[in-house]
Structure formats: C-alpha cells, structure tokens
Specification:
The complex is a heterodimer of chains A (451) and B (60). Chain A has 451 residues and is α/β, with parallel strands linked by helices. Chain A contains 17 helices and 15 strands. The longest helix of chain B has 14 residues. The chains are: A alpha/beta (451), B mainly alpha (60).
C-alpha cells in the first residue's frame, strides 16, 4: 500500500509497510498514479504515452529510480508478518494512570471527567491505596523493567502529599525489584507552589501543564469553580516551573474547540509566552455539544494545520524552533512494528486506577461500570474486558488494516471510538481524518526542513 | 537520485523481528498523559544500545 499526497510544496509518497517516505519530482509523483505492483524492470510502454508531456529520458530515469525502491522493499512493499497480535499481548501490565484525585478546583467546560468527579463522588486516593497500586503494578509487570506511573485526576495536586509519598515508595520498589519507574503528572497548575514545583522537577520525567492558549480562549473554557478565569493564576506558575526545569521534558497542553478553530494563534501565544513544547488538540465531545468538532469544521482545521506548519517551518529555519506534539514524527527510530500495531495498549499493558482502587482500561473509561476490570486489592482482571481491548489492534481492526497511516497512528483511541461510535473497534471517523492530515503535515514538514 | 529523495534511513521491517519487548513508553494520541504518539516514541533498546556505545567511547 502506498499513499501519495501534496502538502506544503512537496510531492510525497509513503510506503506503508516499510515506513519509507519519499519526496518525489513531479514526474515520479505523477508516475505513481499509473503504476502498480508487481513492477517489471522494463518500463511499461504505456507510460511513455501517459507521461508524453515530460521528456522521455526523464520518464525513463524516474521509472528506474522507482523500480530500484521497489526492489529494495521501499515501495509497494509486502505487509510485515506480525502474526496474531492479540495473542502476542501478554497479561503483563507495565503502565498505570493513577487517579490520585477525583476532585478538581476548576470547572473546564469540555472536561471528559465530569469536571474531575468522573460521574462518582469526589474523592482523594489514600496513601494505602496508592502504595497497593504500585505493588500491583510490580506484581503484574513480569520481566518488563521500564514501568510508568502517571499522576492524574481530577487535579492531582489536590492530593500532593499522597503523590509525594507514593513516589517515594515507588523509588523503594525500583531498588528492590530492579525496575525503572517513569513518573509523570498532568496538572491544571493552579495549586503549584515552590515545594510542588521543585518536587515535580526532581521526580517527574514529564509534566503536562494544561492551558488552552490565549487568555480569552482559556478563561472561557477553563474557569475556576467560582467562574473566574484561570489564565492569570496559572501562567506565572507554569513559567516558574519551566524556568526551573532545565532540560526536563514538559508540554503545555491545550484543547481547541469549535470556538477557536483559529488555534494557531493559541499555539503561537504559548510559544511566544516562553513555552517551546506545545500541544493543542481537538476536543472530543458528542456532536450535539456546542463546542464539539464536526465534519463541516474539518476544512477549516486542515487549513489551520497548514498555517501552523508553515510558521513551524519558518521558525525552525530562523533558528527559533518549537515542538508541536502532533507534528512530531520519527522516521528513523520510533518503536518496532509490533508496538505500532498494538498502539496504546489500553486495557492490556496500560490501565487506569481510580481513588477506590478500581481498574479501568484507561483514564477515559474511569467510572464506567461496564468497563470496570477489577480492583488492585485482589488483582483479578476481567479477562473478557481485557480480550476486548487486546483485539483493538491494527491487524484485527479492518478499518485500520486498510489505512495508510496505521503505523503512525497505532490504531487510534478506543475510548473515542466507544464514546463517539458506540464500539471500541469502530474508529471515530473525525479523529481518523484529523490524524491522517496531521501525519501528512508532519511528513511535509520533514520534507521542507530536509531541503 | 534525481527524482526521489527518501527521508528515512531505516525501515520498520528491519525492526520487526525479535521486537515487541514491551519496554518502550506507553503512547497516547493525546498529550494528556505520557506525551508521545506511536509515531514519535523511542525504542528503549536503541536508547540502551546508544548509551552503551557512548559509555564505551568514553571508557566507562
């Protein structure tokens, strides 16, 4: 399978199965619309006529080059033999989202977590439960050394003392069991102080700082409980954290809605405020919501990604690069094909744990009774739910199997699929269109910066 | 090549065999947690190999 597209002035072909990405001359690009495998070493005579408007020696040269890619397995390459991925997913768990707080001091209008409450009573996780959650993770991790614990909520800093003690306990477990735990946190930032800033910078491998961008955009969507805007409170705290963080990884992370489809302005506002690792992402809400992204918004969003990509390239070339999460793509490293096929691993190697110790496939299913997989105290996992998620992989999902972008996407988000399409195996179509466009822009940026 | 410029130097197939070790970071399409997508995360085994090479070069 190949995919050809034109973005940002480049003609590009992606060979899905090998992951090879080729920037093409106009002749070679046009030629790909006429040829299909198996290719012959001798150029088909019909191409001379189809491409008669080009110089014949250029046409022959272009065909030779495309044929050599084909021979090397970088064009029209065969599917990678991945076998039965669902059976390859062992029962080990290696990553956990720890909901240390089902409470929040903000009332963001788009919050999937019912403003921190997750449709249940507002609650904080006890230290005892947190420690048991880490014990459970260690028990279930098998031989995997690199583990992950993400402090989430609600707002995790509402339970900072427990976060600190869980982390300390985690460090003891690392030493005892030969593990390496990557602690991370997502926070709305409003409760950051010197102590929590220094703790986060010392202990969290990554921190996600939630803010939507321009003050007026942010304050409408992210008010405090009393309705007042949060921008002026969180911005200086985020700046202080980032200044003290040195080279440590972080993202400022915002959400765009139908109200701010001109989100480039929000991204650049954050970059120009001093944050050079930014993510601004589409809201996921039911179609009837006044903030949701609908199909008719897609052309405007694609145009906005193009605007952002052009600015991204301009600043990179001017020596002022910034990182935008969805433009990041690794063409030479990245994970293996098996990891790409199984994606995020929700419900299998990654689970979420709520304040009462219940286990869910991921943070977006927290509180949904039919997806409750068990609890950390007896550690017994519902195999039916686990198997449902084990089948959410590129090989078994027919919609994904035929998509050129599958190995960059990893199969999308099972939670979005369920909440928007009613089935974890049914890809949320708007998300697919956005993902494919973003990957095209990410690759076109690579092409532009390689010139 | 005059008509083709390939952006990458490595392909997936070379990494499919013997992989799936599970050591790499959990990915998510959203930066709401671990902040890497499948498209940009690192292979931990390559990170370890590079660290070992670096240590070898510096005599550690």
């Amino acid at each position: 399978m190949i995919h050809t597209f034109r973005r940002l002035g480049s003609n590009i072909a992606v060979d899905t199965e090998s992951g090879a990405v080729h920037v093409l001359s106009p002749i070679a690009y046009k030629m790909l619309s006429y040829i299909k495998p198996p290719l012959t070493q001798d150029m088909p005579v019909s191409l001379r006529y189809s491409l008669a408007r080009f110089d014949s020696s250029d046409v022959e040269e272009a065909y030779e080059e495309l044929y050599s890619l084909y021979e090397q397995g970088e064009l029209f390459s065969d599917p990678i033999p991945l076998g039965d991925i669902s059976k390859a997913l062992s029962t080990r768990i290696k990553s956990m989202c720890l909901h240390v707080s089902h409470d929040c001091n903000m009332r963001c209008r788009y919050c999937f977590a019912d403003c921190g409450g997750y449709v249940q009573e507002r609650k904080l996780m006890s230290l005892e439960t947190g420690k048991r959650a880490l014990d459970f993770l260690i028990e279930k991790s098998g031989g995997v050394r690199n583990l992950e614990v993400d402090f989430f909520g609600g707002e995790p800093l509402l339970n900072f003392d427990v976060v600190r003690e869980i982390t300390r306990y985690g460090r003891e477990l690392e030493a005892k069991h030969g593990k390496k735990i990557r602690f991370t946190m997502t926070t709305n930032g409003s409760l950051l102080d010197d102590e929590s800033i220094d703790f986060i910078n010392a202990e969290m491998s990554n921190v996600v700082l939630s803010i939507d961008g321009r003050p007026e955009v942010n304050d409408y969507m992210r008010p405090f409980e009393d309705g007042s805007g949060s921008y002026e409170t969180v911005i200086p705290k985020f700046k202080k954290l980032v200044e003290r963080r040195g080279d440590g990884e972080y993202y400022v992370r915002g959400t765009f809605t139908r109200r701010n489809l001109d989100f480039t302005a929000d991204v650049l506002h954050l970059v120009d405020s001093g944050f050079n690792a930014v993510s601004v992402e589409p809201v996921v809400l039911p179609e009837e919501s006044e903030y949701s992204i609908r199909k008719e918004d897609l052309p405007a969003i694609f145009a906005e990604y193009e605007k952002l990509a052009l600015e991204y390239i301009a600043r990179a070339k001017a020596g002022r690069p910034f990182t935008f999460f969805h433009f990041m793509i690794d063409l030479d490293g990245g994970p293996c094909a098996i990891k790409r096929a199984k994606g995020c691993g929700s419900g299998c190697e990654y689970v979420a744990v709520t304040p009462d110790g219940s286990i869910y496939p991921c943070h977006q299913f927290a509180g949904e009774e039919k997806f409750k997989m068990g609890n950390i105290f007896d550690g017994v996992i519902d195999e039916n739910i686990r198997n449902t998620f084990a089948h959410c992989n590129l090989i078994e999902n027919p919609t994904c199997a035929d998509c050129w972008a599958k190995y960059y996407c990893g199969g999308g988000c099972a939670a979005n699929n369920f909440h928007m399409e009613g089935n974890v195996m049914k890809p949320y179509s708007i998300a697919c269109e956005l993902e494919r466009a973003r990957v095209e822009f990410a690759l076109a940026i690579k092409a532009a910066l390689a010139k | 090549m005059k008509h083709v410029k390939t952006l990458n130097t490595k392909t997936y197939a070379s990494r499919a065999i013997g992989s799936g070790c599970g050591e790499c970071q959990t990915s998510c399409q959203s930066a709401c947690k671990t902040s890497c997508t499948v498209g940009n995360q690192h292979c931990e085994r390559r990170v370890d190999e590079n660290t070992a090479k670096k240590d070898q070069n510096t005599g550690k």
